[in-house]
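Reproducibility note. Readers wishing to regenerate the assembly model reported in the main text can use the exact inputs given here. Chain order matters: entities are listed in the order in which they were concatenated for prediction.
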Amino acid sequence: MNSNTAAPAAAHDHAHAHDHHHHQSFLTKYIFSTDHKVIGIQFLFTIFVTLALGGLLALGVRWQLAYPWSELPIIGKLLWPDQGGQMPAEFYPMLTTMHASVMIFLVIIPALTGAFGNFCIPLQIGARDMAFPTMNMLSYWFMWPALYFFLSSFLVEGGAAAAGWTSYPPLAGIKSAAPGSLNGQTYWLAGLLCVGMSSLLGSINYITTIVKLRTKGMTFFRMPMTTWALFITAILQAFALPVLTAALILQLLDRTMGTSFFVPENLIVNNVEAGPGGGQPLLWQHMFWFYSHPAVYIMILPAMGVVSDVISTFARKPLFGYKPMVIAIASIAGMGFMVWGHHMFQSGMNPALGATFMVSTMLIALPSAVKTFNWLGTLWGSRIQFTTPMLNALAFVSMFVIGGLSGIFMAATPVDIFIHDTYFIVAHIHYVLFGGSLFGFFAGLYYWYPKMFGRQMNEFWGKVHFAGSFICFNLVFFPMHILGMSGFPRRYADPYSFDTWKDAQPLNQMMTIAAVILGFFQIILVANFLISLRRGKKVDGNPWRSNSLEWHTPDVTPGHGNWGAHPPVVVRGPYDFGAPEAAQDGYLGQTENKYPGVKA
Amino acid sequence: MTTVPLPGEAETGPPIPTSKFALWLFLATEIMFFGAFIGAYIVLRSGSNGWPDPHTVLNPLIGTVNTVVLLGSSVTVVLAHAAAVRNELRKAKAYIGFTFLLGLAFLVVKYFEYNAKFHHGIWPGGPATYPGHEHYQPGMNMFASCYFTLTGFHALHMIAGLVVWAGLFFKRLEPRHELSIELTGLYWHFVDLVWIFLFPLFYLLPNK
Amino acid sequence: MSDSISHDTEHAHEPISVKTYSVIGGILVVGTILAFVFAEELELGWTATVFMIFGIASFKAALVALFFMHLKFERGWKYILVVPPVLLLIGLLIALLPDIAFRSYSIG
Amino acid sequence: MNKFWIFLFALVPLGVLGIYFWAHAQGGALWFPAGISEMGEDIDRLFWIILGLTGTIFFGVEALFLWFLFKYDGKGRDGQAVKYTHGNHRLETLWTVIPAGILVFLAVFQFKTWKEIKFRSNAPDVPLHARVTGGQFEWRFRYPGADGRLDTPDDLEAVNVLHVWKDRDIKLQLESRDVVHSFFIPAVRIKQDLVPGMKQLMWFKVTHTDGQPAPDLHEIACAELCGWGHYKMKGRLVVHETEADYRAWLTQALAKQNADQADLGIVE
Ligand code: HEA
Ligand code: HEA
Ligand code: CUA
Ligand SMILES: [Cu+2]
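Running the prediction on these inputs yields the following structure tokens for the assembly.
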């Protein structure tokens, strides 16, 4: 934020009335900032912390799977001195639960909607800021209590939540059901309510901003895919999240106020009576998945948007099928509300209802097919530049296809009978969430870094990080499909006590080693990110020669108000690369006022 | 950097006031929130093994009176806004005051209703059973769970509304506050709408 | 928060008179009392009672939304925001029926 | 250098093939456990069909992807024209309709299997073979005694062993004592969550024991997280060749149960 332009007078008649301090203190400028770019960057820094946390928890999981009941390296002796540093059985589910919760709610969602949403939306639509900057700031600050609740839950009596990130009652609801359900689960619920608050504030803000604050000429169908995806994601969130909030509140009341929404009659868990009951455990599952299935699309759609932008830019070619791409995103979102039951095929749900969900789940693969083929179409006849953002975006495509296709197996209800709750699911999760969302995040990070900081991340180390992550990722997670075929159940602290799976340990050891190396490669990412802040190659305002509006700010890193005296006027779509009137390298910015057919 | 738009460029952004748009969006999320609660209540009640007869646990007359009180507060809200539009700010303030008082009256009645429940041992996990109807125990418990949760969250929303009304009441009203009154009013009507359904759902709906 | 004064025409004037508001308020009150009478004083049987009380509730809700919340007089974009959640909720409720509403749980 | 990246991406389909054949060769824990039931064969067949379809799609997509990366590598082609197109209506329709066809086919095709396995109307008309109760962290099986009816004094209670016999429709009632569990017999390819307060039905038929030397090798696992000991809910499925064998075992176990009343007949 070096070039903080003095707020021009013209900014005042724009729809943002918050005042401009010419001499902002460090506190208001970087900490309690209401500037969307600063908030986006704050999200980004936070995510590195949470990613490390979630990853370390994953490594704990991996250690147990490779060498069960042996001393946990480095910290084992510190944590459990009387057990020879070996993790107790009740700790394992805490690890998986908190690993998934951190990764989903504190890494992927804030990374894509929080960091990119904040940074990109106003820039890509030519706005000076979000519609409600203060609300935006609050949305960031709700992340911290969430992180606090998650972290401190490890310290409370009984330990952290241990009922899986899906937190099915009665295991999650009854205090005597598991050590982690004693107190940790309450912290988990509180943390999630904070994340929910953050997302809700964010999504209302994004929708309003995109509907209201687009600059002149920025019609809906001239918005870049990133903004489109974030827009639809925000709608998805606004409609799905309240149901999760309601469910979380019901479980919280069950745990603290003696209600029994999810507690059946006459339940006795671990010799403790659970009260009169009268509730129904399946109700939670329905309400949870009514949110959490849309949530998985909340975690993939923005990445799809980012990847579309990146691929088009580095293929130097218009995005193939822009409108079908938008329609595909919209229909994924719409259909996303009709498939939640596919997580409950074996839950005791009415099987006829299951068959309905099976059909809708099959159909939701269609818009994803459209997207995949359009990406391929974009590559066709293009001129590909293998930059770091592009490599990550390409990885997204090839990994998402694997993750998506494995979804088809599970959508087939009879096959799901066998692979449900096995490592086949775990493989699917990571191919879509790591191979998809996280590689999409990497792509966006390398891509927008110059706009954020005026410098480029080191390309060499970026490529090292990419290659390492790509290889190790596949080594860790592809074998999980095979494990799943053998029925290897998930959330098992020690699967090798079964004859059926005892031979799978060497494979798991290989996967664990790969996971550790994968972790080391992420350190390269963090180091590259931090060092490039000071040392990175200085670049001009549009190093990638990109078309979309965010690259057309008057300053290299846009200052407060983004656009100087005059907001930009958009005259064309974001993907006119290689048009006849475009520049030699294909560039034709959204504000370039050139008449069609006139050669550059 | 940019020049004039090409001929035929449209203004973007529909002519909707930003904050009003956001408020309606917020109300949409609130619809989902209360809708989830109400849906859960409906299915839990119809799947229950023995739901207490509403007459034995609630007094429909009090519910009716309270509904009328709340509807009255909605009327005073629109009157406050109408006055504000006509720039009769003192009158607007008076109506806001009435709204506040009616809302408060509703909550006071709720307080006494809650108290009466507690008195009879009706709270989530409470001891209340009916002689000869021991199988009501889980039903009674579920009733208490749903009743307190749904009306409780409705009451919390009212309290939030009352705080805003109080803020407006003690402010020096100016013509520009007309928008604030309208938006707060929209919220208030929404809370009223929720109650319009909670009332028959809890007080009137007979057991099958 | 953003725009303090909006130049939108939507609420520049009040579409309805005070008198109309009072009449609608009156109808709402009468409706409430009617619902009470149907449910408590008349013995209509379950289906008819349910039909009446929720019919009245929906009618009241429609009045509040249309008149008090100005839906009848203002532009229709609000429906884009509030109709989808209502549809989603109906979907959720329908899906909940077979699993929870039509099934009794008890151990033993 | 660009060729390196293309090679890297090409490693994915190659690796997928490689691990497929490697795992196939390993057998054992890295492949389907030997299937012993009729419905298991249906499920496996469906799996293979889907694998065939998705595999074809996968390799097709990968082939195009790699070919494009190779062919349209921008190295040394600065300034060359690209295909300036914003899309193609025909293609969009094509690649919507064909996958739609495949997916609808899959949806319809599998429906029968699903119905046979889970719709209660398809439950075989036989008396309950046993009641399964999941609890932290064990399976309890209650078999009807000589009277063929459950919940009579002559019932047999067994922990963690399910005895059945071959070619017989086995109908089980599933219940949970505390939290949600999931009754999973990998060899039978069957899985059903146990929800406290609900009574589930499950049925299957063991048709072949695959020449297993030890017929009681088939394990039962819990597939829904149920607490710290989730991984410990290991049970066994013992398949008797004939009903007579099964009856013999039952009589013997009952006798043992009567002998030590104190203990609830933990057989083995
Ligand atoms: C980003 C996250 C994300 C995404 C995008 C998806 C996408 C999909 N998911 Fe996934 N899913 C999860 C995250 C995600 N999922 C998570 C986290 C879980 C586990 C939760 C838990 O229990 O902990 C889960 C679990 C899960 C289950 C439950 C399994 C079980 O527990 O038994 C099912 C079942 O149907 C499923 C299906 C699908 C399908 C059909 C898609 C589809 O949208 C995929 C569509 C994409 C393609 C199909 C590929 C591209 C298309 C082509 C190349 C065209 C041609 C293809 C065909 C014609 C087939 N998912
Ligand atoms: C976005 C989501 C996401 C991501 C990125 C990951 C990433 C990883 N996951 Fe996770 N996972 C889930 C979402 C995710 N996971 C979900 C939803 C579940 C289901 C949980 C449930 O059952 O409830 C799950 C479950 C799950 C399991 C199954 C557990 C079980 O069922 O028993 C396993 C097992 O191997 C696993 C492993 C890993 C590994 C090795 C990584 C690795 O990729 C992690 C690699 C990253 C690191 C190791 C970071 C290291 C970085 C540093 C150390 C930097 C140092 C720091 C600084 C210098 C600041 N995950
Ligand atoms: Cu029982 Cu897991
Ligand atoms: Cu899903």
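We highlight two features of this model. Chain A touches chain C at residues 15-18, 131-132, 134-135, 239, 243, 264-267, 280, 282-283, 286, 290, 337-338, 341, 348-350, 352-353 (CB under 8 Å). Residues 1-22 of chain A have pLDDT under 50 and may be disordered.
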